[in-house]
Amino acid sequence: MRVLVAGGAGFIGSHLVDRLLRRTDLDDLTVVDNFWTGRRANLHHIADPRVRIIESDVERLADLGQFDEIYHLASPASPPWYMAEPIRTIRANVLGALRLLDALRPGGLFGFTSTSEVYGDPHVTPQPESYRGSVDCTGPRSSYDESKRCVEAMLFEARRVNRVRIKVVRLFNVFGPRTRPDDGRAVSNFITQGLRKQPITIYGDGLQTRSWGYVDDIVDGLARFFWLQPSEYPGPLNMGNDREISVIDVARYVQRSFPDSAIVHLPPAPQDPTNRRPDLTLAYRTLPGWSCAVPYEVGVDRAIAWFRANEHSFIADADGYLPPAPVLGSA
């Protein structure tokens, strides 16, 4: 069994790599990452001889032969990062998917982590997979939203026309260990600001809501959907926590660990979605026994502990570069 993970040094990708290495049927695991937003430190603990790490843009990946399973996670997911380089983001998603499809053996499986951002600023809550969304295809978030939607369309057409086996997951807000300190999203932003005794910054009034899924729960769901449970359901499948919490409440909870950091409000971010909550009816039917079991508060406490323990490595971390100041910190 030959498996490739594109974006395997990223926050979620590196956790998925760890789960793949539990498999006894795995002979070869190729991790591809250009370390744009992925971190080498996320893979430093791996000493498994089945793993090889290749530094490359996924869309420019050399011919490595064909793979039985391919998982495409090679894209920045944080607004300040994808807004800084929108064309590069589109290339990673769309051209990356095209390149990876060429590397999939006949009958192989192509897994894709799409996003709840395909729903845009939703007029329906919770959002079911059948909801077509309210997305601005020319707005400041479109490089990410639309390239994810394009890859979904491409994969479902490849399935319809060429019988390619696919599994598409729409991830909602994920947080936890191995997030970049300069990631730019709410939970990591607030923790990093607290550690540095800086103000905890909220864009707008903070009443915008998100559904925060702890990374262990999300990766457990990915493993179940992609290979553990015998289902050929192609998706799209919502995956996340259906407990909806406002950004201001997240900031207040994090502040309890950093009382020296005051909460301050900045001007609202453009087109920041007002709400985000998955309808998980289909997920619970497709993945019996799965749920987001880690309470949000426990997950935040674990994330704070991890950031504290790894603060020294962030100072020395030369991977990538710092993006512009976050403009959509609540995503």
UniProtKB/TrEMBL annotation:
Requisite cofactors: NAD(+)
Gene3D superfamilies named among the record's database cross-references: NAD(P)-binding Rossmann-like Domain
Key words, A-Z: Decarboxylase, Lyase, NAD
NAD-dependent epimerase/dehydratase domain segment(s): 3-224
Coiled-coil region list: none
Signal peptide residues on this chain, from the entry's feature table: none
Pfam families: Epimerase
InterPro entries referenced in this protein's UniProt entry, alphabetically: Epimerase_deHydtase, NAD(P)-bd_dom_sf, UXS-like
PANTHER family the UniProt entry points to: UDP-GLUCURONIC ACID DECARBOXYLASE 1, UDP-GLUCURONIC ACID DECARBOXYLASE-RELATED
Name this protein carries in UniProt: UDP-glucose 4-epimerase
